[in-house]
Design goal:
Blueprint: E1 2-4, H1 7-15, H2 22-26, H3 28-43, H4 47-52, E2 59-60, E3 68-72, E4 80-86, E5 91-98
Parallel strand pairs: 1-5
Antiparallel strand pairs: 2-3, 3-4, 4-5
Length: 106
C-alpha cells in the first residue's frame, strides 16, 4: 500500500523530530507505535489487511470525521492516526494524530 505523509508528519517520520508532534517524539511508546503502524500500512496489500490486525483497531469514522479512517498507535494510549483513504484500497494519506477522538478531555 502506498502511504503519503505531508508537512510536519513527514518531518516526524523522516527525522524523528517535530515541533507540532512533540508529544509523540517525547513518548517512546507512541513514537514506536507510529513507526510500527506505518510499517504495517506499507506492508499491507489493501485496507482489508488493516481490518484483520486487531491491535490496530481500524475503523471508518463518522460525524465530524466522516470519510476518514483511523488506527490506534498504541494499546496503552488513546492516540489515533487519522487518515484519508484514496482509491479505496491503494493510497493512504496521513492527516493527523489525535487523542480526543473518543471525547477525551485533558
Amino acid at each position: 500500500m502506498i502511504v503519503i505523509a505531508e508537512g510536519e508528519l513527514k518531518e516526524l517520520l523522516m527525522t524523528g523530530k517535530s515541533r507540532k508532534y512533540k508529544r509523540i517524539t517525547n513518548n517512546k511508546d507512541l513514537y514506536n507505535g507510529l513507526r510500527r503502524v506505518i510499517s504495517f500500512m506499507l506492508a499491507a496489500e489493501n485496507t482489508n489487511d488493516l481490518q484483520t490486525a486487531s491491535f490496530l483497531h481500524y475503523e471508518k469514522l463518522k460525524h465530524d470525521y466522516s470519510g476518514l479512517s483511523s488506527v490506534r498507535l498504541s494499546n496503552r494510549y488513546v492516540h489515533r492516526l487519522i487518515f484519508l483513504e484514496e482509491n479505496d484500497k491503494i493510497t493512504l494519506k496521513l492527516i493527523e494524530i489525535d487523542d480526543t477522538h473518543y471525547g477525551n478531555k485533558k
